[in-house]
């Protein structure tokens, strides 16, 4: 099997939650060696607090989703021996990724300036909620909080609805991907300069980037998104863009010229709307007309009919339906690996495709401290030194019996 694009690159992860781990997981998929440094005891946050409180034995689904292709090293960074081992690890590393606040690193001595003194070639990626300085630097940067602050929550739902948050951790995911882009860019720059550098990404800037069209429109012409009383999917896109009820379920309609839509729906009431700007000027009336027509047939019937007129549409699927979707199967979006203790574990595949240095899924998520001995021996420690570290609780080798809460 071909080696990954980042084979030979070593990454230190000192992260929790989602934004940092999703970035390092993708680096691992690309072939990098990811060493996940965790505190002894319960490890990082995700090990004990999964979404949905969903568990597979002592593993949880959040851990499975975010931590493949990593090795786990438990290390107490508050102890002298722990700091010394971490420094040795940094000397061997290419990248360090963290999503802790800068004040945490200052206390532990793991801030960029200290790490740069140890290894000038180190690429140091800092992921924060709002940035490393400014009026919000000490505020908790969490996905929902940042969604709400950024304005994105105001743009969904009906006009009479309260602000509606997005139904997934889109800010964390976007931030992790931006971190990935910054890291690989810095790796390329280092090939030319021989020097590492610091990368900073934050959740607030990431969700602003997601809103790049909407906010640019506001900044340049003062036009604000205005929700309608109908359930349109986007306040700036022409009606009937959104989700509609059919005879048996729901269908999504995208942008379509009204003459074409009138023929496809066999609806004469739409013929009076002939201009592009009608979609904004009469958006609630258009939405109601289309919604009423769509109630007369099933989703499958409408998709067949609308496809024949090249009207952009699609079904609104449940997770059960998505898992069986033929395009999802064709793309091999759902993958699995076999864990020696928990058997077959399924996960969502990395979306990147490389022809010569393919993505690989080499390791399931690690048990807490699973690779302590392996990693420390790579740093030159003896069995006796490792045993001494265990006795002093600088590292640990044995997981607690259960992490369930």
TrEMBL record:
Q: Is this entry keyworded Transmembrane helix?
A: no
Keywords in alphabetical order: Transferase
Asked whether the keyword Transferase is assigned, the reply is yes
Short name of any one Pfam family annotated for the protein = CoA_transf_3
SUPFAM superfamilies on file: CoA-transferase family III (CaiB/BaiF)
Give the molecular function GO annotations.
CoA-transferase activity
Q: Which InterPro entries match?
A: CoA-transferase_III_domain (IPR050483), CoA-Trfase_fam_III (IPR003673), CoA-Trfase_III_dom3_sf (IPR044855), CoA-Trfase_III_dom_1_sf (IPR023606)
Q: Which domain of life is it from?
A: Bacteria
Q: Which PANTHER family did the record assign?
A: SUCCINATE--HYDROXYMETHYLGLUTARATE COA-TRANSFERASE
Name listed for the protein in its UniProt record:
CoA transferase
From what organism does this protein derive?
Answer: Halalkalibacter oceani
């Amino acid at each position: 099997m071909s080696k990954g694009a980042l084979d030979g690159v070593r990454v230190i992860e000192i992260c929790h939650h989602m934004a940092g781990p999703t970035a390092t997981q993708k680096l691992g998929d690309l072939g990098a060696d990811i060493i996940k440094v965790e505190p002894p005891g319960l490890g990082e946050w995700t090990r004990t607090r999964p979404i949905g409180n969903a568990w597979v034995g002592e593993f949880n689904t959040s851990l499975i989703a975010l931590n493949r292709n990593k090795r786990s090293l438990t290390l107490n960074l508050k102890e002298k021996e722990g700091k010394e081992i971490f420094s040795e690890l940094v000397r061997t590393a290419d990248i360090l990724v963290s999503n802790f606040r800068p004040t945490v690193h200052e206390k532990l001595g793991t801030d960029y300036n200290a790490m740069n003194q140890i290894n000038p070639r180190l690429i140091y990626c800092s992921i924060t909620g709002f940035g490393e300085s400014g009026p919000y630097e000490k505020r908790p940067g969490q996905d929902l909080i940042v969604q709400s602050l950024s304005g994105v929550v105001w743009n969904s739902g009906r006009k009479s609805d309260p602000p509606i948050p997005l139904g997934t951790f889109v800010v964390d995911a976007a931030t992790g991907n931006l971190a990935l882009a910054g890291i690989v860019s810095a790796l390329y720059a280092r090939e030319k300069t021989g020097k590492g550098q610091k990368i900073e990404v934050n959740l607030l800037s990431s969700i602003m980037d997601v809103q790049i069209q909407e906010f640019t429109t506001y900044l340049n012409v003062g036009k604000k998104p205005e929700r309608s009383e109908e359930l349109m999917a986007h306040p700036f896109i022409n009606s009937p863009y959104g989700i509609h009820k059919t005879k048996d379920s729901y269908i999504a309609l995208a942008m379509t010229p009204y003459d074409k839509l009138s023929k496809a729906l066999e609806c004469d009431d739409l013929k009076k709307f002939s201009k592009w700007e009608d979609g904004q000027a009469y958006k609630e009336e258009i939405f109601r007309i289309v919604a009423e027509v769509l109630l007369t047939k099933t989703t499958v019937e409408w998709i067949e009919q609308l496809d024949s007129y090249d009207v952009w549409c699609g079904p609104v699927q449940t997770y059960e339906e998505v898992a069986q979707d033929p395009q999802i199967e064709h793309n091999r979006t759902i993958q699995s690996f076999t864990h020696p203790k928990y058997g077959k574990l399924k996960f969502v595949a990395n979306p990147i495709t490389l022809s010569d240095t393919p993505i690989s899924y080499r390791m399931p998520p690690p048990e807490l401290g699973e690779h302590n001995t392996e990693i420390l021996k790579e740093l030159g420690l003896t069995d006796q030194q490792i045993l001494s570290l265990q006795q002093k609780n600088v590292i640990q080798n044995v997981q607690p019996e259960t992490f369930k809460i």
